[in-house]
Amino acid sequence: MRRRTRRSQKSQQMLADINVTPFVDILLVVLIAFIISAPLITRSLPIELPQGNLRQENPENQTGNMVVAVDQNEKIFFQEKDYDLASLEAYLEKEKSIPRSRVVYLQLDRRVEHGYLIKLMLVFKNAGFTEVGLAFNEKDL
């Protein structure tokens, strides 16, 4: 009887050791999953997103705001004059009397391309204006 008890004690001792093979297998599977999914992660861009609430305001009725209108032929109307993109940029660079803290509202015809809107916004940003908004009809939403 003694022999049997000794063998059972030895087998219990052997089972007490930690088996790291399953642990390493799981770590390798997780590592492979991260390697595969890493290219799928999108990179974030440093952009400031607009707020989600819609304020009922008319930009033409507020003092201190500037309204810039663009027709379907990409002709820009600003301060009772018409410009193209290059001449507006030159005018804004030359005209330093316009306060750069004023809000600029862009009213664009719905047929104006998105790329032109971006170029127009960059003209005002490069001229030092910090707030540029879009004016639209509420029923167009």
Your description of this structure?
By secondary structure, this protein is an alpha/beta fold. It has 2 domains: 2-40; 62-140, Nucleotidyltransferase, domain 5 (2-Layer Sandwich), CATH 3.30.420. It has helices at residues 2-15, 21-37, 85-94, 114-126; strands spanning 66-70, 76-78, 81-83, 104-108, 132-135. It has a 5-stranded mixed beta sheet. Helix 3 runs parallel beside helix 4 (114-126). The chain starts with a helix and ends in a 6-residue tail after the last strand. The model has no long low-confidence stretch (mean pLDDT 78).
Reported CATH architecture of the largest domain: 2-Layer Sandwich
Our estimate of the beta-strand percent is 5-15%
- How many structurally independent domains? 2
At the third CATH level, what is the topology name of the largest domain? Answer: Nucleotidyltransferase, domain 5
Sheet/helix structural class = alpha/beta
Q: Give the CATH level 1 class of the largest domain.
A: Alpha Beta
Number of helices: 4
Helix content: 25-40%
Query: Largest beta sheet: what is the strand line-up?
Result: 3-2-1-4-5
- Ranges with pLDDT <50 over ≥5 residues? none
Largest sheet: 5 strands, mixed
Instruction: Provide the gyration radius in Å.
Output: 33 Å
Shape: elongated
Distance between the termini: 89 Å
Report the count of strand segments. 5
Average pLDDT: 78
